[in-house]
Amino acid sequence: MTTRLGSFQVVSGTPWRGVRYFCTTRLGGHSVSPFDTLNFGAHVGDDAAAVQACREALTAQIGAMPVWLDQVHGTVVHDADASASALGNTGQDGATASTPVADAAVTSCAGHALAVLTADCLPVVVADDAGQAVAVAHAGWRGLAAGVLDNTVAALQARLPAQAELRAWIGPAIGQSAFEVGPDVYAAFCDTQPENTVYFVRRPGSERAGGKWLADLAGLARHRLAVLGVRYIEQSNWCTYRHPELFYSYRFNHPTGRMATLAWLDPATDLP
């Protein structure tokens, strides 16, 4: 669902105990075409001052400094509580030496606002029902196939009691009808896990030369989270490619900006 966060229009899901989370849209920022207007990607060719202005506006809205990552489509999970230097970094994709190279982050400390950037890839938020710890992950097909969600859930569980129940939210990403992939992607998910074939539909007329497939990236993530023991999984069901007026989509328009998905612990969001 879309909602308001101050001057921003954002997408979020069911309220969680002790956790706040959302994905920004492309509306309400300082960047100009083709990055208009709320672009948080410092590595896409946008004016650095405009990106910084967008980031400062976001920080002011949430009242915390986001922990940005240098995302590489990998499986590393950054421990945002490991040191105070994790807070206050300003770059992405190698923009500063202090920016962690990772595609996910985890925290059990209130006020550490975790952030991932996307423009078709999946943003995934995972937390426990009691709001004791939260993690966010950037899951493109490479990271998802390699195990970024496995590592994210494991890092979260390491901070929680054995009986803790997990829940997840899968944010806006490219939908199956727009996500055409080749046999390499099909093989990455299905060669060793044939149960994943249900998340691929053969593109009509593409049977020759290995063929093309339409992949359900969110469905693959939902399945993986369920296998990992996540009890409750909610999908935003927004397709970034089909809604360019709201979201950045790398496949729809390149170059383009990046949305930010943020999550942090906040006891004030406690539910009755």
TrEMBL record:
Pfam families: Cu-oxidase_4. Signal peptide: none annotated. The keyword Hydrolase applies. It catalyses: inosine + phosphate = alpha-D-ribose 1-phosphate + hypoxanthine; S-methyl-5'-thioadenosine + phosphate = 5-(methylsulfanyl)-alpha-D-ribose 1-phosphate + adenine; adenosine + H2O + H(+) = inosine + NH4(+); adenosine + phosphate = alpha-D-ribose 1-phosphate + adenine. GO terms for molecular function: copper ion binding; hydrolase activity; S-methyl-5-thioadenosine phosphorylase activity. Keywords: Hydrolase, Metal-binding, Transferase, Zinc. Belongs to the purine nucleoside phosphorylase YfiH/LACC1 family. NCBIfam families: peptidoglycan editing factor PgeF. This is Purine nucleoside phosphorylase. The lineage of its organism: Bacteria, Pseudomonadati, Pseudomonadota, Betaproteobacteria, Burkholderiales. The gene is pgeF.
